Amino acid sequence: MVLLLSTYDMGRQPFGLASPAAWLRKAGVEVRCADLSRDRLSDQDVRAAKLIGVFLPMHTATRLAIPVIDRVRSLNPAAQLCAYGLYAPLNASLLREHGITDILPGEFEQGLTDLATRTGHGIAPHKDEPAGQVPGGGVPRLEFITPDRGGLPPLAISG
């Protein structure tokens, strides 16, 4: 099972969870999503996850994620930890200090899917082959897949 976490979407539905959830489910991977600005982190989900991805679209989300990453690491030290989004590469050294093993920039859906399928089959990622990148270190251009919004807050916020 893959657990995707978002720390700072202020009650808005996180596209950074809905989009990769669609990719993962299309690949046959069980995925759970948690918007931690609205929901509590489920210890049960953390312990069950083989791969835990933390969405980092901005600086504040990154800072809020650090204690979450530490907690996740203590609850499930065997899980592979991934940070993805625009601010993941910018904070790579800090994230690695807290146990993140894989860092994916923008256009992260294929990379997360690659990591999840490798993790699900017990195959460790190759250090010289970062997931979701094209040869030469570029970022692939991905086809749009309709986001899977199941289990996430509604798009419209009632007032």
Largest sheet: 5 strands, parallel
What's the rounded overall pLDDT mean?
85
- What portion of the residues fall into strands of 2 or more residues? 5-15%
CATH superfamily: Cobalamin-binding domain
Strand order of the largest sheet: 2-1-3-4-5
Structure characterization notes:
The chain is of the alpha/beta class. The protein has one domain: 3-Layer(aba) Sandwich (Rossmann fold), CATH 3.40.50.280. Helix content is about 35%, strand content about 15%. It is built from six helices and five strands, in the order E-H-E-H-E-H-E-H-H-E-H. A five-stranded parallel beta sheet has the order 2-1-3-4-5, with helices on both faces. Helix 1 (about 15-25) packs across helix 6 (about 110-120). The protein is globular, with a radius of gyration of 14 Å. The chain starts with a strand and ends in a 39-residue tail after the last helix.
Which features would summarize this protein structure in a list?
globular, alpha/beta, Rossmann fold, 159 residues, five-stranded parallel β-sheet
Secondary structure elements and pairings:
Blueprint: E1 2-6, H1 15-26, E2 31-35, H2 43-48, E3 51-55, H3 59-75, E4 80-84, H4 87-90, H5 92-97, E5 102-104, H6 109-120
Write a brief structural summary:
With 159 residues, this protein is of the alpha/beta class.
